[in-house]
């Protein structure tokens, strides 16, 4: 075999780069009964319940720690109070968590599935009889003039940055977008010493009031909302208001806001924007699971349309952490043995699903947002493609080939949901690598006599020898 | 088109687009029909390598002629065609291959194609990321790289400027004598050009064109990592023998700085799914030549179907079986390069002008004498 | 395998400058705290910074220890890490 050690002298920023490391191309192999993809609330609950039943469970997550987005641990602090008991249970359950890992490809094999992942830059293979998809969701961005300026970030993105150690003390912040995510983020930023100039919800006042009224069934949610609001009480919370443009040269310095009648400017250091959540269904689509309205289709036991593949949480429909937990429990109980969930769990899920649907209706992006991007507004950030360049295309695929929209590293995750909103485009096919991966990972091969790593006390991998 | 077209071109891939452009330039009224959109089929999957290929004298003549036509057209191509005159390096792994390189240089020189041999030291300087220990290379500076979908679109637009009409989303159901049938439409004309690529046999049974699947992988941007289109000499064996499955080292720097990694060939019908085992072999082969690729981030992979003929030469010319029918299909992995030569040949043959190169080797009639084909 | 966030300071180098940062902080947070909002240039040279915070948008890419295209929001600091942003030209 030719010597693979390399001095990589690619030029970047005008200087030679050297990496003398020998590239290891043989992957680590892990065998398990269940692989849970994603360690947010849904994945944590699913992995915990499956492992407590005695199944050998591996959880993989792209983050540095378990928790996903909503349960992200704060640097130097703890996690949300509702997260701690689950994390303790997970740690005691016997499930094994592998962080800094993202799935690249999934293939059926004789005994189940072979999952190829990149884990801290190295190839990882997981052989599992069942898959539980807990891939969560990402923010929906709708482009507007200036949205690509540094300092313009997602609402959840800002929360992630804050929790991972960024200081917002003294910074002026405008939050403009939609959905219940805005309240906890506004509260966090206020606690962190940010000057919240304005929190603008694009849904109309009537919608928001109607929604608040409907929460009488779940008063705890109303109380929670009020508590969040109390933490930024000195800041204006406006409804029926949205951002039309961000201004600045190398960073955002002000934003234009409108309430549909008048438009005005707010100076700011940071703009948080986002219009709700989009389920991450790419791995599901790669596997061939049915999806509908952008979410994975599941039955009452969280099974997808592909045998031995289950899905929980936001990826099956946006519904918040409590719903993800319930669905995770249901999946953890039913995986492998198709045991039906308890009536109590099913009832809880039904209630939470119903309230989730109401929320989605209330906070749906308004039609005026479609007129925000101008012809010169960048819609594809990876490839700097403007709205004008893609507006006339007959379909997403044609626009992609002619303009390169969606062909960058994010593979359309940032631009396509916004373009679906603006132009009613349909999503394109998903192929591996389902997200960018090192060539060394894609070219990795299993040695003929390879055996899986023994992560579990019991002898694992008998079926694979 | 309100008036009867002189020529109907079926397929707005790069070959059909080139035929339409050449015919429109020759003063013919051209109607182009495509089932989806211009440049959206095999053209979209291709590497866009404009290359002089010497697997046979006829191929060399056609590719040399075509690369000259591309060079002449450069100044009129929009920037989104991303024409880059980076040249090709045919890389030799050992002295035996280096002998083949020297012979190749002589063959090219005889055909008027500029080519120089590079020693190992010169090769290392030309491409620092190739692994040490290679035997040298042949450098062909006249070769280039383009972005095929926009090239096809540019050719269509040139045709339209000269009076051609493009109708997309129209699937042709049948070709008759001097007419095509599409749905309930019957379009009559003087001549029909079947430029349907790998799907051409669906309209003209008897065409010995089969889909030959290829994979490609593209990386994130690493400007300067690679400066020429790099091809291993073994590519010739892979491309020009009809084995079931093969891979060959082929890496291209795109104008964006992304690295396009190929190549693979399989005969698996129309299965467009990614075959991870093939991708692994293809990447492995690439790592044999450029180990530094291991650390690059692969963003996407895709497949395409090359239209392959038994003798590796395209079918360009009249199809006597059907009055008025001309074939311009079967270009395997050279469709992007030879589109211009094909278009000009077809136009010359239809108009009755003397073609610049001998069209006989490409005559569709040659396949009719092959046993079992018809 | 859950990581323990310990807050003793470590040293990284950002665009040639040595900086003390708490262990466990992400590269994206370090850059934000240094006031570097434009961490990279887009393909047409526009200034860009982090957006999604979860490794999906790829707008926070920087060069870490000579490897380009590393997502700063997904990368925790390590002692001696060299970080280059678009500000270094």
Short description:
Chain A has 13 helices and 24 strands. Chain A has 465 residues and is of the alpha/beta class.
Written overview of the protein:
The complex is a heterotrimer of chains A (465), B (374) and C (89). In chain A, helix 3 runs parallel beside helix 4, helix 4 runs parallel beside helix 6 and helix 8 runs antiparallel to helix 9. Chain A is built from 13 helices and 24 strands. In chain A, the strands form 7 sheets. In chain A, strands 3, 4, 5, 6, 7, 8 and 21 form a 7-stranded mixed beta sheet that branches. The radius of gyration of chain A is 23 Å and the shape is globular. Chain A has 465 residues and is an alpha/beta fold. In chain A, strand 3, helix 1 and strand 4 form a beta-alpha-beta unit. Chain B has 374 residues and is of the alpha/beta class. Chain B is 30% helix and 27% strand. Chain B has 10 helices and 19 strands. Chain B has an 8-stranded mixed beta sheet with strand order 5-6-4-14-15-16-13-17, sandwiched between helices. In chain B, strands 8-2-1-12-19-18 form a 6-stranded mixed beta sheet, with helices on one face. In chain B, strands 9-10-11 form a 3-stranded antiparallel beta sheet, with no helix packed on it. In chain B, strand 10 and strand 11 form a beta hairpin. Chain B is globular. Chain B starts with 6 loop residues before the first strand and ends in a 23-residue tail after the last helix. By secondary structure, chain C is mostly beta strands. Helix content of chain C is 8%, strand content 31%. Chain C is built from 1 helix and 7 strands, in the order ββαβββββ. Chain C has a 5-stranded mixed beta sheet with strand order 2-1-7-5-6, with helices on one face. In chain C, a hairpin with a 5-residue loop joins strand 3 and strand 4. The radius of gyration of chain C is 12 Å and the shape is globular. The relative contact order of chain C is 0.27. The mean pLDDT of chain C is 91. Chains in contact: A-B, A-C, B-C. Strand 24 of chain A pairs antiparallel with strand 17 of chain B.
